[in-house]
Amino acid sequence: MKKHLFLILLISLSYSLIGKDSYFRGFYQGENVFVRNPYLGQDSGFCIEKIYLNGKLVVESPTVSAYEVDLQNLEPETRVVIRIVHHDDCQPELINPEVIQGDLKFSWLKVYVDENQMIWITTKESKDGFYIVEKDTEDGWFPLDTVKTKGGIFINQHSIELDHIKGDNLYRVQYHEPDMEVKLSESFNFHSDKSEISHAINEDNWIIEFTEEVSYLLYNNNSRIIKRGKGVSCDIRKLPRGRYLIKYDGKEVYFEKK
User: What is the Cα–Cα distance from 111 to 116, expressed in whole angstroms?
Assistant: First the structure.
């Protein structure tokens, strides 16, 4: 019985000695971080047991009430993860959290569309995120392309090429970041005065010929996209006989391959 009580006491003591972990995250912006290290009394000493910077041990059992974490070996915009192992009954904190955290919320700065492309400028995007560029159609918002984020706390610019239809073209961008709500840009309308594009089907060679280069989507009779591309023609020689739909420049045209 005494042996069991001793083991229980030993296990309880072991658990009481296991410290807690606290994490502080941000980006290096040119200044060092100071960590408040509470003094717990003569028996316990100071609160902090270990400090890690981006996974590397910086110091063990600092005996000062404020410890300076040197970040000057980091490149600007480098992500900072400070892990602090400390006693269970205290809580260290950053004295100057604004030097690495500041306002880390993603924001749109500008969205612009011209005759050839869409450009969007953002700040504080995650390196693990992505964008989806969409166009408003009769069937709702249609995804045009996906663009990977660059990451960092400063300004980033992204762009994609666009094929407008004659008249109004309404676009927007979705921003996706892990464990965050999707953020939408403002919609941007571009009115194009480009000439209308038409097509003809060469049934001798089974090629769809456009009057100028254009992006297109080809659907089978089950409304499934079977081909997409950009050019002055679309080769359909290898397709089986049946009914198809070609979409381009805002047009939707059904045709039969015999």
Answer: 14
